[in-house]
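stage 2 :: seqdesign
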């Protein structure tokens, strides 16, 4: 029978639209102003502290909903006035050992959250949040790379029993000194075979023989690019680890990156997350050194002094056994005596280095050096300030020996670090190491906070524009196509629901202001499909076909044209998505999803409604 879908097809249409409604449902609940509180600098947030915060807020008649989990407290409030007042009270009550951050928490009911249902993620321009422009310290990255190169060269030559007199790295080259020309020639061959990214040449100066290995331009460029790319990945992992809102992290220029954290209103919290440059070094401790002389700055050649957590000097070898770059996993726990510890897992190369070193040094103490980089202010009052053109941050390297332990046996890919002051410090250290140590320190050269009120205004303006556009479309369709115009409007509504539902399901999808423009464009293109179908039906009726045949021909003959138009638009959107970034990428994603959903609603869902209303009936006139 013409214009009749089988039962299974009607059920399929109903189920798909019902699922779309169900997935879009969390977006009706909005977001609550909230405070996110967590400990820092070794402080641990416990139930006693939570109760103290609650008492302080209750004393000011500020009611909130408290959710304490995994050492973090989330307090929801009715409005932003209570949120801001509560932040001031909590910050004064807790002091500097705790981070009190403004945030926006989804107001989705708990049963929906348990089912994995979440509202659509909103971008920085809609939700408000923090924007950072960050610069990677390339000088420190190159210095770190040169240190790694000297270690690699030294290890490679010693494994071949080729003794060297000295080695140093400067700029883009490494110079190795030998006392014998035969050894020098053998070393040159080994390095030329192993180091394909270097140009290796020999040099003679007096009775000393040198091998000079210079990085190729391609290798030098790759090192600089890798430093930024690895920092981008590490920052993204670090933000995700700490549960901050869906971030945007992308490269800008040669040595800068942009980070946007929607929903975060407190830059202090974001700075602690992003600026932390914690990493580790493992070094052999020199027990023969005189500690009193070391405290005065007199140490044996090849060693240096690093203070422990109590300020006592520890003399260690300058040569680094292993760095935090080889750490692939880290977790905090307690040892057999209940003391905090961090369990470390190394990659295969790191495990091999640790294994080879410890097998030859059993019984010797090994120290764990904790390293941070802090920005030091410039002494020049005329120097550019952060955010100004020409600003170049200066970093100070801060080191402390957090653990010295005797090597009891040969270590491998897994071992542990003890000597930490508290479980919270162990947790924070494990988190930073697990998320990755920054390849080079970074400095925030520009920061901008977009308030939730501005984001709300953008949402209201965007929704108003969409409402006006859809409203005019709906009025036109009803006026021009009568009953079929109502069906087209119903299909538009289904399309909007499906689009929002699908966007809510995609983990990385974020709605921005250009995304709202994409929705408006999608709805307009969906109307185009209905117009093509309806005009085709009108044409068939004018040619004298029976109404049922006209409806059937209108849908079947319009399909190719609609599919052709949508596929070409989809390909364009896909290219935008692949090559675009930020707002362009968000616009393209919305457009792709909208085109796919409009094909379903305009052709299948709309046809199902038409079939239910008009299919199988002996019609003399059609309201179109």
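stage 2 :: out
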């Amino acid at each position: 029978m013409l214009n009749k879908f089988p039962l299974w097809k009607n059920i399929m249409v109903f189920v798909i639209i019902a699922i779309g409604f169900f997935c879009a449902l969390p977006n009706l609940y909005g977001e609550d102003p909230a405070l996110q509180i967590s400990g820092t600098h070794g402080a641990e947030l416990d139930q006693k502290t939570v109760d103290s915060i609650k008492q302080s807020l209750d004393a000011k008649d500020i009611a909130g909903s408290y959710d304490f989990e995994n050492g973090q407290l989330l307090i929801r409030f009715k409005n932003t006035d209570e949120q801001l007042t509560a932040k001031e009270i909590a910050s004064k009550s807790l002091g500097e050992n705790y981070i009190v951050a403004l945030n926006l928490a989804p107001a989705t009911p708990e049963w929906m959250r348990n089912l994995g249902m979440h509202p659509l993620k909103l971008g920085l321009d809609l939700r408000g949040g923090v924007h950072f422009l960050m610069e990677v310290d390339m000088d420190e990255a190159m210095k770190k790379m040169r240190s790694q190169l000297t270690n690699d060269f030294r290890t490679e030559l010693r494994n071949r029993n080729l003794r060297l007199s000295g080695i140093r790295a400067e700029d883009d080259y490494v110079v190795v000194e030998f006392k014998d020309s035969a050894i020098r020639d053998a070393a040159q061959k080994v390095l030329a075979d192993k180091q394909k990214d270097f140009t290796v040449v020999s040099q003679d100066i007096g009775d000393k023989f040198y091998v000079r290995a210079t990085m190729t331009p391609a290798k030098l460029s790759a090192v600089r690019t890798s430093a930024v790319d690895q920092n981008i990945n590490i920052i993204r992992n670090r933000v995700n680890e700490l549960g901050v809102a869906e971030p945007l992290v992308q490269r800008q220029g040669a040595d800068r990156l942009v980070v946007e954290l929607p929903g975060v209103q407190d830059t202090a919290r974001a700075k602690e997350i992003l600026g932390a440059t914690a990493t580790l070094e493992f070094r052999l401790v020199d027990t023969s050194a005189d500690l009193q002389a070391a405290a005065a700055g007199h140490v044996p050649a090849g060693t240096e002094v690093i203070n422990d957590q109590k300020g006592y000097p520890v003399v260690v070898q300058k040569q680094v056994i292993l760095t935090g770059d080889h750490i692939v996993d880290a977790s905090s726990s307690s040892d057999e005596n209940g003391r905090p510890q961090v369990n470390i897992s190394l990659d295969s190369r790191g495990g091999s280095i640790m294994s080879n070193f410890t097998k030859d040094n059993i019984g010797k103490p090994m120290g764990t050096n904790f390293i941070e980089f802090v920005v030091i202010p410039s002494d020049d009052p005329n120097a550019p300030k952060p955010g100004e053109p020409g600003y170049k941050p200066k970093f100070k390297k801060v080191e402390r020996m957090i653990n010295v332990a005797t090597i009891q046996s040969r270590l491998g890919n897994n071992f542990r670090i003890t000597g930490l002051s508290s479980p919270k410090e162990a947790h924070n250290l494990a988190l930073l190491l697990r998320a990755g140590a920054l390849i080079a320190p970074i400095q925030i050269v520009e920061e901008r906070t977009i308030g939730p009120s501005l984001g709300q205004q953008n949402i209201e303006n965007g929704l108003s524009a969409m409402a006006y556009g859809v409203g005019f479309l709906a009025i036109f369709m009803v006026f021009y196509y009568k009953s079929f115009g109502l069906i087209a409007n119903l299909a538009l509504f289904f399309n909007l629901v499906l689009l929002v539902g699908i966007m809510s399901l995609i983990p990385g999808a974020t709605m921005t202001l250009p995304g709202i423009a994409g929705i408006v464009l999608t709805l307009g293109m969906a109307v185009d499909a209905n117009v093509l179908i309806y005009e085709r039906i009108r044409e068939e009726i004018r040619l004298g076909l029976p109404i049922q045949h006209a409806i059937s021909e209108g849908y079947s003959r319009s399909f190719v044209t609609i599919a052709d138009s949508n596929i070409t638009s989809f390909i364009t959107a896909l290219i935008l998505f692949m090559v675009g970034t930020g707002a362009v990428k968000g616009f393209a994603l919305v457009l792709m999803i909208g085109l796919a959903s409009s094909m379903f609603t305009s052709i299948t869902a709309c046809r199902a409604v038409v079939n239910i209303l008009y299919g199988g009936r002996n019609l003399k006139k059609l309201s179109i």
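stage 3 :: structure notes
- The two ends are 22 Å apart (CA to CA).
- The mean pLDDT is 80.
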